[in-house]
Every structure is written in C-alpha cells, then in structure tokens.
Specification:
The chain is mostly beta strands. Helices cover about 5% and strands about 30% of the residues. The N and C termini lie far apart (about 40 Å). The chain binds 2-[(2-phenylethyl)sulfamoyl]-4-sulfamoylbenzoic acid and zinc ion.
C-alpha cells in the first residue's frame, strides 16, 4: 500500500538519480564525518512501538525487497529522537553489495558496511497517507541500521527463508508475524541525525534520517541469500542478480549532522 514504485529506472542500479533534483541541497545518502557531527543534548531517546501482527507482505519491487506493514492505525510508531510528531512504520528494506566489502548507502568516516537496513516511517500527525507525506518537508523519518557479517541473526532467518519465494521483480507473498524491532541494535540511544532525501526516485527531500551508531550482525550465508534475488521479472530473458542496489554518497551542502552521543 505504501509502495507504488514511483518509477523503475533502466539505468544501472547504483542510482546516480536524475542529475538535477528540485532544490537538490539535501540529498541522501551522505558520508557521516564523526568529528564534524555536533552533539545535540536536546535529542531524546528513540521510542519505537511495533506490532508483529500488523506485518502484511514481503515483495520484490525490482530494486530491493520490502516488508510492508498495515499503516492505517497507530500500531507501529516511532517517536522521540529528533522528531516532534508521531511517525508510522510503512515498510522496511535493505541495500547491499555484490561482496561484503561494500553495500551500505551511508558511510561513517568513509567506512562502508556490507549492507544497510532502512525502516521507513511517515508523519501521521500531519498527513493522512504515506503518499502525501513523501512529498512534504519532514514528512518521513527513516531509521538506518548498518549490517556487519558475523554471527547469524536468528530474528532475520524467517525473512531470509521467504526470499526464494520472491526471487523475481514484482513477486509478492504474504508475510506475517514479523517484529521489525528485532532488527534494531541493542543500543538505540546513540545515533546521528540529519535532514535528507529518499535515496531512490523520486529522491524527494522529505526525510529526517536517524542513523544508528551500533550495527547489527548477520551471517555470511544470510547475506548471500539477499544476493540470490533478481532485479528482473520472470519473463525477462536475461536475469540480473539484485546486488549493489545503493545510491552513491551525495554532497553535504553545508548541512550539519547532529549526534545524540559524544
Ligand atoms: N532508501 S529509502 O529509504 O529512501 C527508500 C527506498 C525505496 C523505497 C521504495 O518504495 O521502494 C522507499 S519508499 O517506501 O519511501 N517509497 C518511495 C517511492 C514512492 C514515492 C511516492 C509514493 C510511493 C512510493 C524509500
Ligand atoms: Zn533505503
């Protein structure tokens, strides 16, 4: 519901995105230069409430795979942190590389991670639909969590087991009882936050980004299953592995990245 793919571009998956984006001075992702981030003591701890029963489906949109939630009630909310309003979870998805050497969208002091999780929320205090919020200043709040290769993530396995059933673009399967909270790191009090954009078309500058300092660990094998997905639909003759579905870092353009920790 919250994901009518805005447009699937034929260009290489590593989004360059349209060169001239309206405004274009708050694009994402960015490199987070730790020593240039500014401690903001007003930043509160994040408050997330997620109800696993509102998980609806998992699908391959030809760019990533999305796990979608019922966002017609306030069952899955994000509050606090840098946010003034209550935001509702619409979906979460990942970005990853063809090898463990790269794959994340944000970097920390130029350090790349093998993958990055994005939990997409929209401002339900000000807007009635995701589609409205996505076009508005601060209409969205996305939590970013870096993935590192290490021990197997038990909570992720249910999702990994569903991926072979959505190998091709536009395939959807019912997916229920999944708690997105299990994908957050133990410490959600330490994060960086800045004003940016979607990293996929329409690249709208409507996102308050909240990037977790602490990463989560997944196993090599779990990440390998991400790479078994395809960008292409079943009918296409040439099948292309879904890898490197990240956008390159964008200029900071004078923005300040705030930190909730020293
Ligand atoms: N990396 S990111 O968090 O910026 C992001 C990536 C993918 C998508 C997506 O919908 O595919 C999304 S989305 O769920 O926000 N949808 C954006 C496309 C869209 C625009 C307007 C209406 C519906 C969908 C966000
Ligand atoms: Zn994303």
């Amino acid at each position: 519901r919250c994901n009518l793919t805005a447009c699937s571009s034929k260009m290489h998956p590593m989004w360059q995105g349209p060169l001239a984006v309206p405004g274009g001075d708050r694009q994402s992702p960015i490199d987070i230069v730790v020593r240039k981030s500014v401690l903001d003591t007003e930043l509160k701890p994040l408050k997330t409430t997620y109800d696993p029963k509102t998980c609806q489906q998992i699908w391959n949109n030809g760019y990533s795979f999305l796990v979608e939630y019922d966002d017609t009630t306030d069952k899955n909310t994000l509050k606090g942190g840098p946010l003034q309003d209550t935001f509702r979870l619409c979906q979460f998805h990942f970005h990853w590389g063809e090898t463990n050497d790269w794959g994340s969208e944000h970097t920390v002091d130029r350090r790349l991670f093998p993958a990055e999780l994005h939990l997409v929320h929209w401002n339900a205090d000000r807007y009635s639909l995701f589609e409205e919020a996505v076009m508005e200043d601060n209409g969205l709040a996305v939590i970013g969590v870096f993935l590192k290769v290490g021990k197997r993530h038990e909570g992720l396995q249910k999702l990994v087991d569903a991926l072979p059933t959505i190998r091709h673009k536009d395939s959807v399967v019912e997916f229920t009882c999944f708690d997105p909270g299990c994908l957050l790191p133990a410490n959600t009090d330490d994060y960086w936050t800045y004003h940016g954009s979607l990293t996929t078309p329409p690249l709208t500058e409507s996102v308050t980004w909240i990037v977790m300092k602490q990463h989560i660990e997944v196993s090599h094998d779990q990440l390998a299953v991400f790479r078994s997905l395809l960008f292409t639909s079943a009918e296409e003759e040439v099948q292309k592995s879904m890898v490197n579905n990240f956008r390159v870092q964008q200029p900071l353009r004078g923005r300040t990245v705030r930190s909730s920790f020293t």
